[in-house]
TrEMBL record:
<feature type="domain" description="OmpR/PhoB-type">
    <location>
        <begin position="125"/>
        <end position="223"/>
    </location>
</feature>
<keyword id="KW-0902">Two-component regulatory system</keyword>
<dbReference type="Pfam" id="PF00072">
    <property type="entry name" value="Response_reg"/>
</dbReference>
<protein>
    <submittedName>
        <fullName>Transcriptional regulatory protein TcrA</fullName>
    </submittedName>
</protein>
<keyword id="KW-0238">DNA-binding</keyword>
<dbReference type="InterPro" id="IPR036388">
    <property type="entry name" value="WH-like_DNA-bd_sf"/>
</dbReference>
<keyword id="KW-0804">Transcription</keyword>
<dbReference type="InterPro" id="IPR001789">
    <property type="entry name" value="Sig_transdc_resp-reg_receiver"/>
</dbReference>
<dbReference type="GO" id="GO:0032993">
    <property type="term" value="C:protein-DNA complex"/>
</dbReference>
<feature type="modified residue" description="4-aspartylphosphate">
    <location>
        <position position="51"/>
    </location>
</feature>
<dbReference type="GO" id="GO:0000156">
    <property type="term" value="F:phosphorelay response regulator activity"/>
</dbReference>
<dbReference type="InterPro" id="IPR039420">
    <property type="entry name" value="WalR-like"/>
</dbReference>
<dbReference type="InterPro" id="IPR001867">
    <property type="entry name" value="OmpR/PhoB-type_DNA-bd"/>
</dbReference>
<dbReference type="Pfam" id="PF00486">
    <property type="entry name" value="Trans_reg_C"/>
</dbReference>
<keyword id="KW-0805">Transcription regulation</keyword>
<feature type="DNA-binding region" description="OmpR/PhoB-type">
    <location>
        <begin position="125"/>
        <end position="223"/>
    </location>
</feature>
<dbReference type="GO" id="GO:0005829">
    <property type="term" value="C:cytosol"/>
</dbReference>
Length: 226
């Protein structure tokens, strides 16, 4: 997942960003409400982890403004305020879920996964499938016809993004943003190189030809539906 973490407490933000990156997610950090709104409007995120007590705009205001501007990214609101009225207010402003501090990191990850699954139109399962190809998003394991395919962390993120958008064209810029984030050089051909690596891993399997190059536009992973 590509995630936006909005948290002004440096201890908590370091804990969340480090843990989420170790869990193979791409993470951007915003430390106040204005930066959160700007990032959410300009980035294509799978989910937003939004603190309530923030400088500039509070989390309630950020959430309400994002929804008013058509941003439908799943939002997990996080706060130390545990009154029922606060939770109701957060949900009423457009948040999808509400988590009270202190929290366990595993619960944060589980809730984010649940939110992103809930927002998908093609699959409500942690297992993505396209023909003989399957991807277990919890175990970070790819399989073709039940046989495991060993992938590096980058190859996994690339395949996950393609599978979540199976049947649609994905541009090189979209791949770069979701797989490499801010570490990507727009003049680099690294996206093409890693698509090549992924194709080699799938060569000789039933999924060998599923990743197609769409000339001038990018790539598409075929759904291979019966």
């Amino acid at each position: 997942m590509r995630l936006l973490v909005v948290e002004d407490d440096p201890t908590i933000s370091r804990f969340l960003v480090k843990g989420l990156r170790e869990d193979q997610h791409l993470v951007d950090l915003a430390e106040d409400g204005d930066a959160a709104e700007a990032s959410a409007l300009s980035g294509d995120y799978d989910a937003i982890l939004l603190d309530v007590m923030l400088p500039a705009q509070d989390g309630f205001t950020v959430c309400r403004r994002l929804r008013a501007q058509g941003v439908d990214t799943p939002i997990l609101m996080v706060t130390a305020r545990d009154a029922v009225g606060d939770r109701v207010h957060g949900l009423d402003t457009g948040a999808d879920d509400y988590l009270v501090k202190p929290f366990a990191f595993d619960e944060v990850v589980a809730r984010l996964r649940a939110l992103t699954r809930r927002g998908r139109t093609r699959s409500l399962s942690a297992i993505l499938t396209a023909g003989a190809l399957s991807l277990d998003q919890e175990a970070h394991q790819a399989r073709v016809a039940g046989t495991p395919v060993p992938l590096t962390a980058t190859e996994y993120r690339l395949l996950e993004y393609l599978m979540r958008r199976a049947g649609t064209i994905v541009s090189r810029d979209q791949l770069a943003e979701h797989v490499w984030g801010g570490d990507y050089d727009p003049c680099s051909n690294v996206a093409d190189v890693y698509v090549g690596y992924l194709r080699k891993k799938l060569a000789g399997t039933a999924a060998a030809d599923q990743i197609r190059t769409i000339r001038g536009l990018g790539y598409m992973l075929d759904r291979v539906e019966a």
